[in-house]
Design a protein that fits this description.
Structural class: alpha/beta
Strand order of the largest sheet: 1-4-3-2
Largest sheet: 4 strands, mixed
CATH class of the largest domain: Alpha Beta
CATH architecture of the largest domain: 3-Layer(aba) Sandwich
Number of strands: 4
Distance between the termini: 47 Å
Strand content: 5-15%
């Protein structure tokens, strides 16, 4: 596959698994098109936003027409990981593309924009739109301030220097994981908190994490506490506002 085909496939699958309706996503893209048409400084506009609703998912470096036959993927890819890939390539290990889950470069600089997805998630749980928007706007502003001072392009610059194709896929991956976990939990209908833990431990990734002393944990309540309403948080950029849990209770 070509790099652009992989990128497009990631976007397509992310949209399919998104909690927002397809019509809403189309409206978001349409709004971006209007903004682009009306601004004078088109050179600084992120044109990927015209077809990609996930600000935290981008091709950070690479020729979109390059053929990709082998990929290495990591949750966090920083300078050390890019240098590691360069070492592998020099030892005749074919790697055509590095994919990071967590965003970098321009995808990190404004990844907080995808947090709007949380509004739809909270509304589905019965929170009013006005309350969800109010609480989330404060949290978004907090995250924006936090990331604004970061050296966003450090790892991207290293990838460019070493000519290593580099892509990050954040919310699309989170959307797919959210859908997967949600479907399993809803199908199994856990009765107690320990049942949720048991269900999660059947998933290979959770089981693997447990072998490294990082299993899923109950942080409030105990294993015999009964389960009533289940709210699953897995997507939307980063953690939402703490105060929202009072509204969900």
């Amino acid at each position: 596959m070509k790099l652009k085909e992989i990128y497009q496939k990631i976007i397509e699958e992310g949209i399919k698994a998104d909690i927002r309706k397809e019509e809403e996503i189309k409206l978001i893209l349409k709004e971006q098109k209007k903004i682009y048409e009306n601004i004078k400084d088109k050179e600084t506009f992120d044109t990927d936003s015209l077809f990609n609703p996930f600000s935290d998912t981008r091709v950070l470096y690479g020729d979109l027409n390059s053929e990709i036959k082998s990929i290495i993927v990591g949750i966090d890819v920083d300078v050390a990981e890019i240098l590691f890939v360069d070492m592998l390539k020099k030892s005749n290990t074919d790697i055509d593309l590095v994919i990071s889950h967590h965003p970098a470069g321009k995808a990190y600089a404004n990844f907080y924009e995808v947090m709007d997805l949380q509004i739809d998630m909270l509304v589905k749980e019965g929170i009013s739109v006005s309350v969800a928007e109010s609480l989330l706007s404060e949290r978004k502003a907090e995250i924006e301030r936090k990331v604004s001072a970061a050296n966003h392009n450090r790892v991207v610059d290293i990838a460019k220097w070493l000519k290593i194709n580099f892509l990050c896929a954040h919310t699309p991956a989170d959307n797919l994981a959210y859908r997967y976990i949600k479907n399993i939990i809803e199908k199994r209908k856990p009765y107690k908190l320990k049942d949720i833990i048991d269900i999660l431990l059947e998933i290979p990734e959770y089981k693997y994490a447990s072998t490294y002393n990082n299993p899923p944990k109950i942080v409030l309540g105990n294993k015999d506490s009964k389960v009533s309403k289940i709210h699953i948080e897995f997507t939307g950029g980063t953690e939402g506002p703490i105060d929202i849990y009072k509204k969900l209770a």
